[in-house]
Amino acid sequence: MSGQNRQDIRPGLLVDIVQKQDQRTGKRTRGAVKDILTKSPHHPHGIKVRLESGQVGRVQEIVASQEQT
Questions:
Q1: Using one digit for the tens of pLDDT, what is the confidence trace for 33-46?
Q2: Bridge-partner residues for 64, per DSSP?
Q3: By C-alpha distance, which of 54, 65, 58 is closest to 6?
Q4: Which of 30, 35, 42, 58 could make an S-S bridge to 46, C-beta 3.0–4.6 Å?
Q5: In the Cβ-directed half-sphere of 32, how many Cα atoms lie within 13 Å?
Q6: What is the mean pLDDT of residues 8-16?
Q7: Beta carbons within 10 angstroms of residue 28's beta carbon
Q8: Which backbone phi and psi does 8 adopt, to 5 degrees?
Q9: Could you tell me if 61 and 9 are in contact, meaning their C-beta atoms sit under 8 angstroms apart?
Q10: Does residue 6 register a pLDDT over 50?
Q11: 42 - beta bridge partners?
């Protein structure tokens, strides 16, 4: 599932993000969502989130909810 719709993302979800410095390479970072930073309901490049590790980036893919892992 893509991460373009805010309604699909909630704290605790396991997601792959692309951080600002990795946009050229497309390197993804996996982690659990702590905060949703994008206020709009949709963003074409992905909803911006903060992971529990403190890293910030745009969601590229929703991997699983915490209950499934």
A1: 999 999 999 999 99
A2: 14
A3: 58
A4: 58
A5: 9
A6: 96
A7: 14
A8: -85, -10
A9: no
A10: yes
A11: 5
